[in-house]
Every structure is written in C-alpha cells, then in structure tokens.
Amino acid sequence: MATIIDSHFLAFTALVTIGYQFLFFVVTALLKFDKVTDFAGSTNFIIIAVLTLVIKGSWYFRQIILTFFVGIWGFRLALFLLFRILQWGEDRRFDEMRNNLGRLAIFWIFQAVWVWAVSLPVTLVNASDRNPFLHVVDIIGWILWAVGFIVEGTADQQKLNFKRSSDNRGRWCNVGVWKYSRHPNYFGEILLWWGIFVASTPVLEGAEWLVVIGPIFLTLLLLFVSGIPLLEDSADKKFGNVDGYRIYKKRTSPLIPLPPSVYGNLPAWFKTALLLEFPFYSRNLPQEENWSCFGYASVVFGESTQRDSDRE
C-alpha cells in the first residue's frame, strides 16, 4: 500500500500520523483527558519507524539500527512522560485549551507536523533501495545519538528524583547534569535527532537531503517556540527576584552543558553568538536594581531558597 501511495513513504507516513493523532485528539476533546498527549506523540515516532521498516521489507542493517534507535527513544520517553503526568495530574499546558476546541485542534495539528517532520530521516532510510557499506558518518551519527540519549534520559531521571523529594519542594533543579545546563534534556533530544540525520546521509541523494528539515525543525522548535522560551519565562516570573536563581541562570548555560565556572566568566556577546543565550530568554527577568533590593532582603530573612520551574 505504502509504495503505491509514494515510493518514499512521505504521504503514507503523513496519513498514518494524521490518523493516529486525530484518534487521540478525539479522546482528549470528548473526555477532557489530556494525560495521553505526550504518549501519543512519542509512540507515533515508533509506529512510523516500524511500519516503514516492515512494509519496505529490505531489512538492511542501517535501517534496522536507526529504527531501533527511534524505537528505544520513543519507548523510554513515552513511558517516562506518561508515568510523570499520571503522578502529577492534569497537564497545565491545556488549562486554556480544554474548553476551546479550535485551540486544542491547532495543538494536535502542530504535534502531527512535529512527528512527521522529525521522522523524515528514518522514513527516507527505510524507504530507500540503496544500501552502501557503513561509512564513518554512520559511526559518528550513532555516537551522537548515544550521547544524546544518555544525556536526555539522565536529565529526566535526575529531575524526577529531585522533585520526588519533599526537601526539594518549591526548588528549581540544579543537581547532576542540571548544574551544567538549564535544559540538558533538550540538549540530549536535539543531539540524538541530529545523530539520526547524520547516520542517514550515506543513502541520501539529490532532493532527499531535504530531510535535514527534521532536525532543523526540532532545534528551532525547542530554541524559539515551545521549548526553552516558555520554560525560561515561567521560571523567571516565579523566581526572578531570588538571588540564588539569578546566580544560577547567569552561571549556567541555557542548552550546551558547560562548567559554571567557565560559562559564568564568558562575555555576553560570546554567550549570545555561540552558546544560544538569547536576550528573549530573560525578557521576564526583573531588572537588576529591583533584584538587588529583593535579593538583600531575601538573604536577611532567609528566603533565598530555590523555587522549581514548571515542567521540562
């Protein structure tokens, strides 16, 4: 069926994704049950990868490896996010959407586009008849994926453990890999999907290189739209007058893990140009003069404790 629709599985995976996301959209809209949202997104990646591998039926080593990578990533993330939302209750992202069918539909459409676009490299690999011998870039891509997968999984688990402790209630997470990056889970996710793209390049020809849209889309999404900006805004509004938080933010890289002693001493232009410390990440941070007064009062009255940001 897929090869009849299109030889590269692009239309086929689009239809599968639309159908799968529409099913969960209906459940969410009718039952006001949004605990399955992230689960629907993560498992959709697995479905696309496995379906394209099985339907093509070539079973080349490169296809199997990349499908396995997508599968293990999606399985871990789906279970982690489902377990977390079942523990925490309702997803606050949908507080203003549950009774607004239009806004809810836009969210699910966007999620479908995200899944389909980011899956493009593995989709094209699984659809290809080409099977060149393993290249150095295959190994590089696998290494990038492995490092990203480990970083993302470690960051998720460390933050979950941190928030489970009653001693950390109302504190922002700055333990483990969170000491070196304010968003290490996003760094890991971006890295692993670029790794999948790099490992897909030996089979790409001509216009097929446009699958680079996948990792580019993911990177731009997390850097400028629904990832870091939203979480930075939320944290700044809550803790911007807490001196400890402001010190943490000043000394901790937004994405790429670096020692605080190194990052904190770098010039502002260098952080912006090369380390993605964009000014709009601090648009809700109170002005320095206001913070100084509050910070002093916090120290005097013993209130300079951390406050945890929403979700990451």
TrEMBL record:
Nucleotidyltransferase recorded as keyword: no
InterPro entries recorded: UstE-like
Coiled coil residues, start to end: none
GO cellular component: membrane
Transmembrane segments: 12-31, 38-55, 61-83, 104-127, 133-155, 210-231
Pfam families for the chain: DUF1295
Protein name listed in UniProt: Steroid 5-alpha reductase C-terminal domain-containing protein
Organism: Phaseolus coccineus (Scarlet runner bean)
